[in-house]
Amino acid sequence: MPDITIEGPDGDFAAYLALPSKTPAPAILVAQEIFGVNQVMRDVCDWLAGEGYLACCPDIFWRIEPGIQITDKTDAEWKRAFELFGLFDVDKGIGDLKTTLAHLRSHEAGNGKAGAIGYCLGGKLAYLMATRSDADASVGYYGVGLADLLDEARAIDNPLMLHVAAKDQFVPPEQQESVAAALSCNPLVTLHDYSSQDHAFARVGGQHYDRGAADLANKRTIDFFKEHLVT
What we know:
Elements: E1 3-8, E2 11-18, E3 25-31, H1 39-50, E4 54-58, H2 75-87, H3 90-106, E5 110-119, H4 121-132, E6 138-141, E7 160-165, H5 173-183, E8 189-194, H6 211-230
Parallel strand pairs: 3-4, 3-5, 5-6, 6-7, 7-8
Antiparallel strand pairs: 1-2, 2-4
């Protein structure tokens, strides 16, 4: 699958694009983890393309350093990933994601429908795409920092699904409780708790990967997108 260039108001940036076998098709924007558009994110795009979606993961770290593709396998890479997380401008990142979403809506292989999905940092961004963009449906996996963004929840006007790792080392129980209290009453929001799972339980090859929980979350995700992007 090709790397493409997205033209943004602040400059051009790269993105990984995966095409389904049949087009036109609905599109899904993939918001990266803190490791950049690495093989894990590319595999997510390929998985979604296999399910019938035009899938695209843009490089939202490009203002810091273009082309970041690191793993979760070494201490040095983890250190760099957290440095990138600290340097990342969320508002500008959301701007890049909205630009990419618009690109996907008008893509020749698309049908005009477009959703968003994200993991970790990207899970946070998927929530913000639900509050700040016109994404037709959004899914966040173990998003970080949502408790600090609940004042935006009133802006959710399209379906949002969140996969929550109950044992998430980066999201304390009190934060999870505040998120649930704020969002569970919204009929557009679906929350799924995974009681024994830690952060990144769906990252294939990761330390906390759990195939059973990942498969369940992924099935729920595909069913959700079929309901809101296809039918």
